[in-house]
Amino acid sequence: MFANILPQAVARLPESLKSVVRITQQAQTDQIDALQSTYATQNIDADIRPFFTDVAGIMETADLVICRSGASTVAELAAAGRPSVLSPLPTLLMAISWRMPGN
């Protein structure tokens, strides 16, 4: 999801912001080359990998965290005191829908 949405959103940033933005993005291996190319053409500094081992360290230095989330992620972000934009996990949405009256 973020491999499609995030580059489009970043492309709309003013040039003055693009020069100071640094993106750290986890992506599937087959998406990495395209993402790196997209960000490079926009002069965006980006670190894109299939996995990050120091997520706590990355969150600690982030100005904004954009991620999928469940309860654990929300708790980690609250503990780190980081602003965030959260997208619910698809499995969570299915569970909530299943429990709703009338479903």
Helix content, binned percent: 40-55%
Total of DSSP H or I helical runs spanning 4+ residues: 6
What's the average pLDDT?
Answer: 87
Number-wise, the strands total: 4
Order of helices and strands: HHEHEHEHEH
Low-confidence runs of at least 5 consecutive residues: none
What is the rounded distance between the termini? 26 Å
Which range does the strand content fall in?
Answer: 15-25%
* Strand line-up in the sheet with most strands: 1-2
Major sheet description = 2 strands, parallel
Radius of gyration, in Å, reads 16 Å
Q: Give the class from helix and strand content and strand pairing.
A: alpha/beta
The coarse overall form would be: globular
Q: Any idea how many domains?
A: 2
Task: From the structure above, extract its key features.
globular, 6 helices, 103 residues, 50% helix
Please provide a written account of the structure:
By secondary structure, this protein is of the alpha/beta class. It folds into two domains: 1-52, no CATH class; 63-103, no CATH class. 50% of the residues lie in helices and 19% in strands. It has helices spanning 2-11, 15-18, 32-41, 55-61, 71-80, 90-99, and strands at 22-26, 45-49, 65-69, 84-88. Strands 1-2 form a two-stranded parallel ribbon. Strands 3-4 form a two-stranded parallel sheet. The protein starts with a helix and ends with a helix. The mean pLDDT is 87.
